[in-house]
Write a structure and sequence with these properties.
- 35% of the residues lie in helices and 22% in strands.
- A hairpin with a 4-residue loop joins strand 1 and strand 2.
- The protein has one domain.
């Protein structure tokens, strides 16, 4: 579906960045991957991060606390887009804070949030099991090392 009065592509990316910054994220970059039909967001873990994303508690904290905020910004942003169907997911890359490790040892946690999941997490209009929505995101978790090597994560959730 198209919205002729909606935001164009550049405005969508700009809105995504500013929305995340307003939500307290230290945004490092926002791009679009046409092949994946995804907005790619890189942000540095800051004030609330006490350890590397290699620490399961920190990775779970990203899932619990960051995913709902990212989902809300993404859903609001694409809702106002001229071509909302162009944006099927947001892929978030949470970068280790510089304080937790040397630059050549920093890790990145990658999580993907499909537009449908983002809408459900943001609007909560259905009775879908919240835990199932988080599990769909957690199942996409990948830990990427400084050399670009990726390893799937199996995050444990305590969300009902």
């Amino acid at each position: 579906m198209s919205n002729s009065n909606g935001k164009d592509h550049d405005d969508v990316l700009s809105s995504m960045r500013s929305g995340l910054e307003l939500a307290g994220f230290g945004v490092d970059g926002v791009e679009y991957d046409a092949e994946e039909c995804a907005i790619l967001v890189r942000y540095v873990l800051t004030r609330e991060a006490t350890a590397s994303v290699t620490d399961e508690a920190t990775a779970t904290q990203v899932l619990d606390e960051h995913v709902p905020r990212i989902a809300g910004v993404f859903d609001s942003t694409i809702e106002d887009a001229r071509e909302p169907d162009r944006y099927r997911r947001v892929v978030a890359f949470a970068l280790d804070p510089p304080e937790t490790s040397a630059s050549d040892e920093r890790y990145t946690l990658r999580l993907a949030i499909d537009a449908e999941v983002a809408r459900e997490l943001h609007r909560r209009e259905t009775s879908d099991d919240l835990g199932a929505l988080y599990r769909r995101v957690a199942d996409t978790a990948v830990l990427i090392d400084a050399d670009g090597e990726a390893e799937e994560l199996h995050l444990q959730l305590d969300i009902d």
